[in-house]
TrEMBL record:
Residues bound to Mg(2+): 238, 252
GO CC terms: mitochondrion; succinate-CoA ligase complex
Compartments where found: Mitochondrion
Protein's name in the database: Succinate--CoA ligase [ADP-forming] subunit beta, mitochondrial
Residues that bind substrate: 303
Keywords per UniProt: ATP-binding, Ligase, Magnesium, Metal-binding, Mitochondrion, Nucleotide-binding, Transit peptide, Tricarboxylic acid cycle
Gene Ontology annotations of biological process type: succinyl-CoA metabolic process; tricarboxylic acid cycle
Phylogenetic classification of the source organism: Eukaryota, Sar, Alveolata, Ciliophora, Intramacronucleata
Residues forming coiled coils: none
Catalytic reaction(s) noted: succinate + ATP + CoA = succinyl-CoA + ADP + phosphate
Alphabetized Pfam families for the sequence: ATP-grasp_2 (PF08442), Ligase_CoA (PF00549)
Residue positions binding ATP: 78, 85-87, 147
Organism: Stylonychia lemnae
PROSITE patterns: SUCCINYL_COA_LIG_3
Length: 434
């Protein structure tokens, strides 16, 4: 599988994690690999390095040789996994250090690809499980004069897209914002009015790129077109590079797409790399459950994102570790409830389960019946602490309380004591298995 692409520009040609993202709530997004993000930006005429992907060392050698026929160059070989911290990671199978390497010859490209392809890259973000590296992205090493930061994301408080840019590129932008906030600039965009040329010219000035203002205007316009047309919720370029020949290039890019818009982004959906998802997330997604793996030992099943966050907070407060974020939303009944409980019960990392449901429109007695049905179908092996509050919660209590021992469920309608109980149960079960 050879895939070559790149945006070639001549000298002086006239162009004819994100900081603001709301991190309070886990969100569902389609993440693109770096090479996929590059291809997408390339379609929108955003300059990117000459690059190609390869599944193995033989393909990597062909890609590098093909590049070398165009002009002398050095190469950067990048493991393609959907996680940060690649450069400091290691491959589990061979303990090869680093998921990003600079090399000088096609033969060296092949050697690096051999050590990466088909291996598991472990980074700080991936955890010990690591992520499979199925292919590598080979790009031309750029001759960079200056690095910048640029992203386009959603400011959910303002209800508008926002460009975030800085002269401090190639580093963690959140650190820059914390330590030197005066180096961060923003442009909020009114989607009804579109981009304002004065804002873009000011951006060129703020970045000390007034001599390249036509390129800056071109770049911002085409990024915005891509963002809107492809239903992106983040496009991040870090670094945005000014090359020695005066060209501005998106040296490294990340793109995430709003899951809710995938019905009209079928081309991007078809490229989704499911191998990068935690297998539990894949199972949850098949039942339309909003599940995010965290890695603790207390499974959480909650309705409503706010209650889910509060549940995880109180578990941590009492010394426990949430295993997941699992929001069943307003459909916490029937088959979906059964599958949600089954997912947590079958998780080898989970020692206890906290089901914390508030019945508003949903009736607690109906929820209780769904939970009873699930307990009878699944043959529970993990103890459950159940808290139901809201509509018909007293009836739900009467349904569950007499059958606690039979069902393997502890019913507690007090949030605080239920949280302490689920942490205690998890700790005792964990200790008993050691």
């Amino acid at each position: 599988m050879l895939n070559l692409f790149g945006y070639q520009m001549s000298r002086g040609s006239g162009f004819n994690r994100a900081l603001i993202m709301n991190k309070d709530l886990p969100m569902r997004r389609l993440k693109l690999h770096e090479y996929q993000a590059g291809k997408l930006l390339h379609k929108y005429r955003v300059p990117i390095p000459l690059g190609g992907v390869a599944l193995n060392s033989k393909e990597a050698l062909l890609v590098a040789r093909q590049f070398g026929q165009q002009r002398p160059m050095e190469y950067v070989v990048k493991a393609q996994v959907l996680g940060g911290g690649r450069g400091l990671g290691h491959f589990r199978e061979n303990n090869f250090q680093g998921g990003v390497h600079l090399v000088k010859t096609p033969e060296q490209v092949a050697e690096i690809a051999e050590k990466m392809c088909g291996k598991t890259l472990v980074t700080k973000q991936s955890g010990e499980a690591g992520l499979p590296c199925n292919l590598v992205y080979i790009v031309e090493k750029l001759s960079i004069s200056k690095e910048y930061y640029l992203s386009l994301t959603l400011d959910r408080k303002a209800g508008k897209p926002v460009f975030i840019y800085s002269k401090a590129g190639g580093m963690n932008i959140e650190d820059v914002a914390h330590n030197t906030p005066d180096q961060i600039f923003k442009i909020h965009v009114d989607i009804n009015q579109g981009l304002n040329i004065d804002d873009l010219l000011q951006a060129a000035k703020n970045l000390d790129l007034e001599d390249y203002k036509s390129q800056v205007v071109f770049l911002f316009k085409h990024l915005y077109d891509c963002f809107i047309e492809k239903d992106a919720d983040m496009i991040e370029i870090n670094p945005l590079a000014l090359l020695a020949d005066g060209t501005i290039v998106a040296a490294d890019s990340k793109v995430t797409i709003d899951d809710n818009a995938l019905f009209r982004q079928k081309d991007l959906k078809a490229e989704e790399d499911l191998s990068q998802q935690n297998y539990k997330e894949r199972i949850a997604k098949s039942f339309d459950l909003n599940y995010i793996y965290i890695g603790g030992n207390i499974g959480c099943l909650v309705n409503g994102a706010g209650l889910a966050m509060a549940t995880m907070d109180i578990i941590k407060h009492y010394g426990g570790n949430p295993a997941n974020f699992l929001d069943v939303g307003g459909s916490a009944e029937g088959e979906q409830m059964v599958e949600a409980i089954k997912l947590l019960n079958n998780d080898p990392e989970v020692d206890s389960i906290f089901i914390n449901i508030f019945g508003g429109i949903l009736r607690c007695d109906n929820l209780a019946q769904s939970i009873i049905n699930a307990a009878e179908q699944i043959s529970l092996t993990k103890p459950i602490v159940l808290r139901l509050k809201g509509t018909n919660s007293k009836i739900a209590r009467e349904m569950i309380k007499p059958r606690e021992k039979e069902l393997g469920i502890f019913f507690d309608d007090d949030f605080d004591s239920a949280a302490r109980l689920v942490v205690d149960v998890a700790q005792k079960r964990s200790q008993s298995e050691k």
